[in-house]
C-alpha cells in the first residue's frame, strides 16, 4: 500500500468514526429527498403501491411526503438541540414507518439479480429510499451513544445457542431447496412436473437467465438459498470477520461490519415477517377458515403443501438471520483498549 493510499484510508476511517457528528444532517438531507420523491409521485399520479397485475391508486405518495416531512423536522431538531428522550422516541417511530415501507425490497433485489424487471419501478425506488432512511434514522437515534472504545476485537465465534439457531435456519431451507431442485431436474413434486413449472415460470414472465438456469437443472432460488446460508454462517463463525486468502489484495484484512450486516438486516426484515404472516395465513387455510388459491398447481392441497415448505423456510431462516446479525453486531463492536498502569 502506498503512502497516498494509507493517507486516504486513514482519512476515510477518521471520517467514518465521526459518524455521530454528521448522521443527523445526513438524515435531514435524506428526508428532504424522500419528501420530494413522494410529492413528485403524488402530483404526477404515480402509484407507489403495486398489487397483482395492476397499479393500485392510493394516497401513498402523500403518506411518503408526511413521513419525509416528519423526519425532516425531527432530524433538524436533533441538529439544533441534541437528542432528548422525546426526539429519540420520534426517531424510532419514523424508523418503524420506514421499515414497514421498505418491506419486500429483498424480493425486488432478487428479481433484478435474476435479470427480471420489477413490477413497479416507482414502488421499488420508494422501498429502497425507505430502507436507507431506516438505517439513517436508527443511527441518528443512537448518535449520542458513542462506542466504548476503538480497539479491534479478535474474530470470534457466536455463542453455542446462536450457532444452534444457525443450524435450525440452515435445515429449514433443506426441504425448500430439495423441492426446487426436484423441479429443476425434471422431477415431479406436489402433482406438478418440472416441465410444467418451467412453462409456468415462462408464462409468468421469468427472465432468460432464470429459464436458462432452470433448463440446466439449476434453480435460481435454490442457489440464492445457498448464498443465504453462506451469509448466515459468516455471521456466526470467525471467518466471517476476515477476508479469506483468495481475495488477493484484501486477504487477512478485517471485513467492514456493514458488508455482512446490510444484506443480513435486509433479509431478516423481509423474510421473517413474510414467513410468519404467510404461516399464519396457511394455518387459517389448513383449518378451512380461508380458501387458498391453487395457482399453477392441480389442487389447493398441493398449493398448501408447497406454501408450507416455503413459509417455514422463510420464517425460520429469517429469525435465525436476525439472531445471527445481532450476535455479529455485538461481537464486532469496538472494544475498550486495555491500559496497564505502572506498578
TrEMBL record:
Domain of life: Bacteria
Keyword field: Membrane, Transmembrane, Transmembrane helix
Transmembrane segments: 27-50, 62-83, 90-114, 120-140, 161-179, 221-240, 261-284, 304-329
Protein name: Uncharacterized protein
Organism: Streptomyces goshikiensis
Source lineage: Bacteria, Bacillati, Actinomycetota, Actinomycetes, Kitasatosporales
Amino acid at each position: 500500500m502506498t503512502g497516498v493510499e494509507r493517507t486516504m484510508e486513514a482519512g476515510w476511517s477518521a471520517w467514518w468514526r465521526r459518524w455521530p457528528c454528521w448522521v443527523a444532517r445526513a438524515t435531514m438531507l435524506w428526508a428532504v429527498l424522500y419528501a420530494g420523491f413522494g410529492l413528485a409521485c403524488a402530483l404526477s399520479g404515480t402509484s407507489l403501491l403495486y398489487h397483482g397485475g395492476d397499479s393500485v391508486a392510493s394516497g401513498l405518495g402523500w403518506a411518503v411526503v408526511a413521513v419525509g416531512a416528519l423526519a425532516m423536522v425531527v432530524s433538524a431538531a436533533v441538529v439544533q438541540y441534541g437528542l432528548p428522550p422525546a426526539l429519540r422516541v420520534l426517531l424510532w417511530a419514523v424508523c418503524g414507518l420506514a421499515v414497514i415501507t421498505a418491506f419486500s425490497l429483498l424480493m425486488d433485489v432478487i428479481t433484478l439479480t435474476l435479470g427480471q424487471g420489477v413490477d413497479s419501478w416507482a414502488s421499488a425506488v420508494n422501498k429502497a429510499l425507505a430502507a436507507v432512511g431506516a438505517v439513517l434514522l436508527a443511527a441518528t437515534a443512537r448518535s449520542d451513544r458513542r462506542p466504548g472504545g476503538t480497539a479491534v476485537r479478535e474474530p470470534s465465534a457466536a455463542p453455542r445457542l446462536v450457532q444452534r439457531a444457525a443450524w435450525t435456519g440452515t435445515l429449514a431451507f433443506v426441504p425448500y431447496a430439495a423441492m426446487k431442485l426436484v423441479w429443476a431436474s425434471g422431477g415431479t413434486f406436489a402433482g406438478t412436473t418440472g416441465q410444467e413449472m418451467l412453462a409456468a415460470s415462462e408464462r409468468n414472465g421469468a427472465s432468460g437467465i432464470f429459464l436458462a438456469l432452470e433448463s440446466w437443472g439449476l434453480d435460481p432460488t435454490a442457489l440464492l438459498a445457498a448464498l443465504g446460508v453462506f451469509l448466515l454462517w459468516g455471521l456466526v463463525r470467525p471467518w466471517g470477520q476476515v477476508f479469506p486468502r483468495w481475495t488477493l489484495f484484501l486477504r487477512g484484512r478485517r471485513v467492514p461490519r456493514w458488508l455482512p450486516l446490510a444484506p443480513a438486516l435486509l433479509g431478516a426484515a423481509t423474510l421473517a415477517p413474510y414467513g410468519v404472516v404467510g404461516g399464519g395465513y396457511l394455518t387459517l387455510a389448513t383449518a378451512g377458515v380461508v380458501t387458498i388459491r391453487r395457482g399453477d398447481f392441480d389442487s389447493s392441497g398441493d398449493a398448501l403443501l408447497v406454501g408450507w415448505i416455503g413459509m417455514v423456510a422463510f420464517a425460520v431462516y429469517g429469525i435465525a438471520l436476525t439472531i445471527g446479525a445481532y450476535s455479529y453486531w455485538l461481537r464486532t463492536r469496538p472494544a475498550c483498549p486495555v491500559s496497564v498502569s505502572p506498578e
